[in-house]
Amino acid sequence: TVAIDTSGSIANEDLEIFFAEIYAIWRRGTTVQIVEADAAVARTYLYKGVTPKAVAGRGGTDFNAAIRWSNEHRADGLVYFTDGHASRPRVESRCPVLWVVTEDGSTDVLPGRTVKLSQ
What we know:
Number of helices: 2
Structural class: alpha/beta
Number of strands: 6
């Protein structure tokens, strides 16, 4: 499962970088279930190698909704693309989480493994 932070603090340029990384994951033969979330899960779909024209959300940020969704759908792993600007998640993930954070994002509240994107 790949969660994308679609809150208002995520710039369109960040989304382009996120989808470039997601494409690289998908191209290697991985099934990618996308969860677009801001303060709630806004949309989910199976990624087919095409970047959507727009993402759903654009409100505030709450990591709990996407983590809860991945728990309920028994994800093998969760890759969460974000700028990290939100409260620490209260929901514990049942699978490993990798936080992929924008170059200027914050990793202060993110539990577990994080990587920073560079442009």
